[in-house]
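Notes from the 1:1 (GR / supervisor)

We went over the backlog. Supervisor wanted to see one worked example end to end before approving the batch request, so GR pasted a single chain during the call. The sequence is below; no edits were made to it. Supervisor asked that the structure be written out right there so they could see what the output format looks like.
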Amino acid sequence: MWKSILGAASLALGISGAAAMAQEKILISSEWGEVTATLADNDAADALLEMLPLTIDMRDHLRQEKTGFLPSSLPELPRQRGFETGTLGLWSSNHFVIYYSSGSVPNPGIIILGEVTGDVSIFDRPGTITVELTRLD
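Structure output shown during the call:
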């Protein structure tokens, strides 16, 4: 019986935890290098994918993330406060974020857009950077 309860709890946590990842992948490239990312399976990530290819000027913020503005807003979805190294997020409706360290943000939190599968530490340096987002087939 305990195995059934634990199994159900694990399933529930898996469903309600981090956003499920779709199979859609993007390339994030810059003069500092490039990484791939797997997009989340949600409406905001789908809308981001429809904008690609895209060039974003990004700045360093709090020595944990690079931030930049998208040309238009993405759909509003449930938010979370915690993030992991490599999380792609959305702070405001058009404020794109690449986190290169783990942590948390204040309310209202972020919408999860995806997860970098490459070495996101290439962004762990002060200064501004221009990134290009393109769809991988």
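Supervisor's comment: The longest helix spans residues 2-16.
Batch request approved.
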